Amino acid sequence: xxxxxxxxxxxxxxxxxxxxxxxxxxxxxxxxxxxxxxxxxxxxxxxxxxxxxxxxxxxxxxxxxxxxxxxxxxxxxxxxxxxxxxxxxxxxxxxxxxxxxxxxxxxxxxxxxxxxxxxxxxxxxxxxxxxxxxxxxxxxxxxxxxxxxxxxxxxxxxxxxxxxxxxxxxxxxxxxxxxxxxxxxxxxxxxxxxxxxxxxxxxxxxxxxxxxxxxxxxxxxxxxxxxxxxxxxxxxxxxxxxxxxxxxxxxxxxxxxxxxxxxxxxxxxxxxxxxxxxxxxxxxxxxxxxxxxxxxxxxxxxxxxxxxxxxxxxxxxxxx
Length: 320
Ligand SMILES: O=C(O)CCC(=O)C(=O)O
Hints:
By secondary structure, the chain is α+β, with helices and mostly antiparallel strands. It has one domain (2-313): Sandwich (Jelly Rolls), CATH 2.60.120. The chain is 22% helix and 18% strand. The protein contains 8 helices and 12 strands. It has helices at residues 31-41, 52-68, 101-104, 107-113, 116-126, 193-197, 219-226, 306-313, and strands at residues 2-6, 9-13, 19-20, 43-46, 130-132, 137-141, 164-169, 180-184, 229-232, 240-244, 249-251, 260-269. Strands 4, 5, 6, 7, 10 and 12 form a 6-stranded antiparallel β-sheet that branches. Helix 2 (52-68) crosses helix 4. The protein binds 2-oxoglutaric acid. Residues 139, 141, 147, 152, 165, 167, 180, 249, 251, 262, 264 line the site of 2-oxoglutaric acid.
């Protein structure tokens, strides 16, 4: 049994609070069953979707990029390939790599996150050619950092609803380094209908929300209120998890001295319209959300925050 920090809660793993993810590799030759699994669980976890060596090469390319940004980020006296962070390098020091094409579209990174393996996978899943947003959410998550519970629909709902996220850890990432946790069933269980009709339907950029866009940092505020089951696992380089825009997910806290590197990539059928904010070479986003939104809006007045909205929607603010 391991003690894990999942957002702001400390939980045992594995336990009823946080179970182990099961992979769906046995369904890879049965696309209808794979699609049914994606809808019933809200995700499919595929071991070895990517080539392991290519993922390890991509990780090194990202670390090399960070190393070349200057001193003070990776710990001196340790091999840079280890990805050990300088103790002082936390929020604001780890480079923000989301949508930064110089690193997200570098050869080694592109080869993994938009290489032929994911293209073929999604082509099979959609029954037609697949396309992916140009914007890539490449993340370096430092010690004590994590992502709060949210659905992706609040960030990217202006194109087709046949849009899926593929989360790819770049390297072997144990739960203690900050893995993605899924709330199984949250995309369709009846307990989520008000949550999905209010928060889940929000376009947070449109309403000018200030902050991360997360619903909460407390996993129990989701599972104990609306149902579903939190699950995660230790990921190996090559593994990926694919999930719907309505699946609630968050991450465990990175409690190690190593940088957790991962990328979320969005996929949809090629014939469908895409959210225009994430297509092209330059991205014009009004806000900074996710981890980058933590400090946004702290000093602003008259802007909606998630707490104000939750009150309006009739949700209790915090759980004991
Ligand atoms: O990597 C993370 O911590 C968050 C990723 C995420 O929210 C996503 O893939 O949609």
